[in-house]
């Protein structure tokens, strides 16, 4: 799998004129990587992910998956949103099966595959439950299972743990690392949480505020086997401070010139 984003621009019309949301974005994600793009509010992170998912059209530039241009939504890209987007009237099993049903997969086959991915995310015992009977973290695991069931080439995650409380968020981060190690799925995740980006990623793209650009790519040289103990290491803190300083840079400059 090779995701490549080249010279990507995105503008939106407003009453005051055109708003430039993304400017000259260049980045890539390779097979089996877990990569984060981190930026403050207004940096265009969600817009970038929507463009990669094919839910919106770029103003300029190109997005390719395995050298094929992205022209709309496709089964090669799975999407997990911050809000769980589960169908409340469907059981957990049927929610996971939903995308497979849209693809025309036979009933027996989609049941087997959905059951497999529910086992992967540890929710086999909740297959017959409704979303309202699940905790926030469990709902997000259902959403991840649903995306993985379609076996996409890359999983796109839009601040998937942003709506969770701190303890659940930390548990979900460990869950995602374990899932990634077991399945070796390719993941591109966006977040505003610097610590989360460093903890999860092999590489971090640091975005500027509007218009969003990539100001730096940082390779995270930490052990693949990560526990929360790694957050106390000096190398982890160095990455965290470096990225935080980059995110604050332009804001501090604006304050100095006021």
From TrEMBL:
One annotated GO molecular function:
ATP binding
Q: Which InterPro entries match?
A: AAA+_ATPase, ABC_transporter-like_ATP-bd, ABC_transporter-like_CS, ABC_transporter_ATP-bind, P-loop_NTPase
The topology of this chain with respect to the membrane is:
Peripheral membrane protein
Under Gene3D superfamilies, the record lists: P-loop containing nucleotide triphosphate hydrolases (3.40.50.300)
Q: Which domain of life is it from?
A: Bacteria
Q: Does the keyword Kinase apply?
A: no
**Similarity comment text for this entry:** Belongs to the ABC transporter superfamily. Nitrate/nitrite/cyanate uptake transporter (NitT) (TC 3.A.1.16) family.
Can you name this protein? ABC transporter ATP-binding protein
Q: Which organism is it from?
A: Leptothoe spongobia TAU-MAC 1115
